[in-house]
Write a structure and sequence with these properties.
Length: 284
């Protein structure tokens, strides 16, 4: 019996993904505006890069998009990664002088951890966290520079505020510590940008899958103009020290499977983790 054409296309994509991942795994959250760079547009989220699918899986519990991630990827080492990155293609945002868009992230909810024995997701263990380093908002950076040049003219708390943002945003099982929102990047003259922020897993984290939730925003607190509606939330499910099979099980437990070919999504996840394993072997 011939394999469905869709399955064959996905298998071919996974094969090319295997080769690419031996060098580096690279994928981005894409950023757009549903009505273009005009007031009232909603920030939109999509996927671009080495991931071998056109549409992201959807979380069965929340209806949000789900991105895979791996703290053992080729570039990041065992406890850090810079994927997923963030990319706005030219023309997606306003890069006009005096009307330049700044886009940032907003941390949502709590850090969730998968339990292999029960197959359930719950709040992460005490002392375990995932830290995301966003850019310091322009107003905070400028105030800090002013405090170095002429402390008497700097706003109160300029140095402390700069330090607050410099420590990054920490997702824990109890909630968010540090800045809830921080800058990702600002649009260049052509209305786009491409940025990769640093993610770290901290504490005595057991091998497991971990999930964080984000939104994208242009709020004034991150340097934006507050003209756009925040994006829908989305999840990133990270692998930390699991085998390919274990991570596939954890990831698929969150995914709303399409009909009639759920096996193709399982194959996609297996391809991601297996190629990550290949990258580890190449690196070592």
């Amino acid at each position: 019996m011939r394999a469905p054409l869709r399955f064959m296309h996905l298998a071919a994509a996974l094969l090319s993904f295997h080769v690419a991942a031996a060098h580096a795994i690279h994928f981005d959250v894409t950023i757009g505006l549903d009505q273009g760079p005009v007031a009232g547009s909603r920030i939109t989220v999509g996927a671009y890069g080495d991931l071998p699918f056109e549409h992201l899986p959807i979380d069965v519990h929340t209806g949000y998009m789900v991105f895979p991630g791996d703290f053992g990827d080729f570039e990041g080492g065992p406890k850090s990664t810079d994927d997923p990155g963030f990319q706005a293609f030219p023309g997606s945002l306003s890069g006009a002088s005096g009307a330049r868009d700044f886009i940032g992230f907003r941390a949502v909810g709590t850090l969730l951890q998968w339990d292999a024995a029960s197959g359930a997701w719950s709040a992460a263990d005490d002392g375990v966290g995932i830290r995301l380093y966003g850019a310091v908002p322009p107003a905070v950076a400028n105030a800090y520079i002013q405090s170095l040049i002429n402390p008497r003219l700097a706003p109160p708390g300029a140095a402390a505020n700069f330090e607050f943002y410099s420590q990054g945003t920490l997702f824990t099982g109890a909630g968010i510590e540090g800045p809830v929102a921080a800058t990702i990047d600002d649009a260049n003259a052509n209305g786009g940008f491409h940025a990769h922020l640093d993610w770290f897993i901290e504490g005595a984290a057991p091998s497991s899958a971990y999930m964080v939730t984000l939104q994208l925003t242009d709020a004034a607190s991150i340097g934006g103009r507050g003209r756009y509606v925040d994006s829908d939330p989305f999840h990133v499910v990270f692998n930390y020290g699991l085998s390919a099979e274990q991570y596939e099980t954890a990831f698929m437990s969150r995914v709303s499977l399409p009909v009639p070919e759920p096996s193709t999504w399982a194959l996609m996840v297996a391809g991601l983790v297996l190629t990550t394993g290949l990258a580890r072997r190449v690196r070592s």
